[in-house]
Design a protein that fits this description.
heterodimer, A: mainly alpha, B: alpha+beta, 4-stranded antiparallel sheet, 1 helix, 4 strands, 38% strand
Amino acid sequence: MTMFKKQVIIECIVALLIMLFLYASISKFLDFKTFIGQMNNQPLPNSWTPFLVWGIPFLEIAISVALLFEYTRLLGLYASLILMILFTVYTSIILLHFFPYIPCSCGGVIQKLTWRQHLGLNLFFVSLSVLGIIQQRSKHFKPIFITTKHSFV
Amino acid sequence: MKRIKWTIMTLAILLSIGGAFASRPHNVQASLYYWTGSSYMPAGTIGVTYVCETSSSICNYYYSNGVYMPYTTSASYTPLALTTTRPAPTKSK
């Protein structure tokens, strides 16, 4: 694969992740009261709500900004992978009926998805983050070729 | 390459902001209703007095132009007091 193609693939992966995180965070801020209610709707302690309602959208925006710039992109990809794994684990716990009830899968158009579809979406973005990390790391990896010209043998 | 990169990024940012504004729901959280089977009643506060549990029905409705419209779909209205909890594990002999 040429360097140009590889770069375009990375840009597309990063663009998809930015779209997800930016869309999710802006949707939350645009309907903040509903988001607080939805957080209370989750089977988590309600004392966590003040931290979650501010922490999650700000973290999503921070990851989007980190993904934009070359210098912080790898960090952003790792952060998005960790966040998506956390969301996936939470979705799996919900689907395994670990909690006393199954809450609505709220948030923008994402609330139209069932929990199974939600899990599929999360897994897709987890794999996208992994692919992005592999591509980004390989971009900076420069193989050293030992030629007979430079060898001592 | 830089031009391609920033074109893709600008497109992604504009699409996400536009999408978020386009899918913004009406501000009806304060006046949501639920269907009792015979009439519509004020739903209360989500997460405090009731939850929307995943199911195939409609959890709550909003009132617009004389019509009750579905608000949270694919969920059912469950008052918190009636939410079933897991039974405590019993010791086996």
